[in-house]
Amino acid sequence: MVRQGSKVLVLCGPSGSGKSSLLRLLFEEFPEKFGFSVSHTTRNPRPGEENGKHYHFTTKEEMELAIARGEFIESAVFSNNMYGTSVAAVKSVCESGKVCVLDIDVEGVKQVKKTDLNPLLVFIKPPSLVDLETRLRGRNTETEDSLQRRLDAARKEMVYGETPGNFHLIVVNDNLDKAYKKLKEFVCFIQVIIDHYEVKVSWCFTIDHLLASSIKPALQTILGLGVATAKASLQVYERGRLDEH
Questions:
Q1: Between the CA of residue 243 and those of 214, 230, 239, 240, what are the distances in Å?
Q2: Is 139 among the catalytic positions?
Q3: Is the pLDDT of residue 88 over 70?
Q4: Is 150 annotated in the active site?
């Protein structure tokens, strides 16, 4: 298993919510900071998809055997196809020194929470189910039956995603640039906080602790300032605390 304290970022959201677009922007801007954990699937490749880049394409028999051997962190079945994240895929990214990014569904999130990965959990939410249906139809990759299954799954995912405590951040993707700005500033700011306080414990514990701690008022203020001014703002805040004492 991946060692305690490894940095893992989980993006979860219904198919069509825009996770792939947000991840593309994140990787383009910070190629040295984030690495993608390539999932396994038993479905057939779509046009343009490459094995080992978009997914590790495998057979149902091979994947079931690997899961039985404990080689997967999480797995799920959708539309009769298996999807999952292998221990090896996450370990490879973490050992490179990068934050490992997982793009998984709600069932995967529930399983990952039971591991020692201690992830930062972000839910990507479409503006509405109507918007989501429009996006999915625009892909021209779904039959009417598969489309309805995705919409049914999306309803359940949005209920879980909007439940307080299940995610550290919810991003409504009604505008890609604004959604990316919110995602980037939150993820990068949390890292600035951790670096500033030289925290040695796990990432998830740090986030939960900080958001519930005495510095929460400062966090609420600084989160609106952007990454560029976060460190300076923290220093000002720290000086203010010292002056109070």
A1: 16, 20, 6, 5
A2: yes
A3: yes
A4: yes
